[in-house]
Amino acid sequence: MNKPRHILGISGGKDSAALAIYLNDKYPTLNFEYYFCDTGKELDETYELIANLENYLGKKVLKLENEELKSSKDAPFDYYFKSFRGYLPSPQARWCTALMKLKPFEKFVNGEPTVSYVGIRGDEEREGYISRESNIQSIFPFRRNIWSNDVLTKFFNPNNQEQVLSFFNSYHKGNKFDKVLDILNEPITFDLNYKAETAKAIKLKLNTSLDLGIPEFNRAVFDFLKTTNYPLASQVDFELLDNEDVLVRDDIFKILRETGIGVPKYYEKIEFEVDGQKGEYARSRSGCFFCFFQQKIEWIWLYEQHPELYKEAIKYENADEMFTWVPNESLQELIEPLRIKQIKLGHIQRTKKKESKSSPYLLDILEDTERDGCNTCFL
Ligand code: SF4
Questions:
Q1: N or C: which end of the chain has fewer CB within 10 A?
Q2: Which of 330, 333, 345, 373 is nearest to 281 (CA)?
């Protein structure tokens, strides 16, 4: 098997940018290829961030584009929007991601063994985009567990237990090895009707294994991978096996600030006042300025902070056909003064409620929906 390529997608968001910096600085021997799938509808801050990154990394961030766009003068989003005859993408019909992100990505990989690095943080629960192609393997350097679920599912499959035990045996002895045995003997089902139970059992086995030693666990997984067709199977060693770092949101901001790359301006909180009550808003994500995953308060942020972009977003809607960015409400309706007031007050209430319960960060509140959003666009 050929040696794998090491690739990193820059979405324009903070996490993928910080990941590129972190890996470049910590693992200079890995030859990373960086790419960006441009929809032509990003905020200016995204393009600035990519330019700053290119300077820092001393490498180009390759702009991926589908063949059919090469002869078109339209921005990629507009080209496909026309071909869909004005049918807007939505969480249920995400043609934008499929055509502008996944298609060029798979062409870029071109069937070659590839390790793709993903910037999901240690304080997040989501998994991120996992390719179904066997030649692409995802690695999550910011998490305690760097491996993807598909790898873990195979690793903890009782059919592989004997082999896995022999790998663990090289790294754990005595009590620790007995504990590994207990972990692997914990029941697990792979019945498709019990997916939640499978996920829970894998998580338990994973966390207990990691508690016994992260580098030891990583080495056992790596040995196991060598018996498979995963891209890393061809590597003699893998630089990240001893990595025990866990990076959370504050670390990401710190990396961006300390390296001088800077945090995209749209993450900065802006104060507003309504009916004597004070609130704050910001944008929680990168991606298209009109992305349908954004919350209503983010639409109001766009209207008040980038009115020209809001007007542009309105132009894509066809309210008669119910083609609106927000379900059952046009962008024109969303900016009626009373509606703006209602959205802002609702946001203030929700923020207070969540602040009293959990995280003090506005971004945590805004990012609640991001977890269900587009993992290829917002990292
Ligand atoms: S940012 Fe939103 S609108 Fe743009 S491609 Fe991603 S999911 Fe689609």
A1: N
A2: 345
What is the rounded distance in angstroms from the CA atom of residue 226 to the CA atom of residue 169? 16
More confident residue, 369 or 167: 167
Q: Measured from the CA of 41, which atom of ligand 1 is nearest? A: 4
Given a cut of 80, whether residue 378 has pLDDT beyond it is no
Residue 69 CA, chain-centre distance (Å), reads 25
- Which residue's alpha carbon is at the smallest distance from atom 6 of ligand 1? 377
pLDDT digits (tens, 9 = 90+) for 169-203: 999 999 999 999 999 888 888 888 888 898 899 99
Distance between CA atoms of 287 and 282, rounded to whole angstroms? 14
Q: Tokens standing for 64?
A: 């991926």
- Rg of the Cα atoms in the chain: 23
Tell how strand 32-37 and strand 61-64 pair up. Answer: parallel
Q: Helix axis angle, 44-57 relative to 14-26, nearest 10°?
A: 0
Task: Establish whether residue 99 lines the binding site of ligand 1, counting it when its CB lies within 6 angstroms of any ligand atom.
Answer: no
* Alpha-carbon distances, residue 117 vs 52, 128, 259 (angstroms): 20, 11, 20
Q: pLDDT tens digits for 281-332?
A: 999 888 999 999 999 999 999 999 999 999 999 999 997 888 999 999 999 9
The alpha carbon of 100 and the centre of ligand 1 are apart by a number of angstroms equal to 9
377 within ligand 1 shell (Cβ under 6 A): yes
Residue with CA at minimum distance from ligand 1 atom 2 = 291
Instruction: Compute, in angstroms, the gap from residue 349 CA to the centroid of ligand 1.
Output: 28
CB of 39 shorter than 6 A to ligand 1: yes
pLDDT in tens, 127-164: 766 667 789 999 999 999 999 999 999 999 999 999 99
- Is the shortest distance between the CB of 76 and ligand 1 below 6 Å? no
Structure tokens at 50: 């990519």
Give 48 Cα–ligand 1 centroid separation in angstroms: 19
Which amino acid is it at 95? Answer: W
Q: Whose alpha carbon is nearest atom 4 of ligand 1? A: 288
d(CA 345, CA 133): 46
| Strand (E) or helix (H) holding 117 | strand 114-117
Q: Is the pLDDT of residue 371 over 70?
A: no
Which residue, by CA, sits nearest to atom 1 of ligand 1? 287
Q: How far is the CA of 130 from the centre of ligand 1 (A)?
A: 17
End-to-end CA distance of the chain: 30
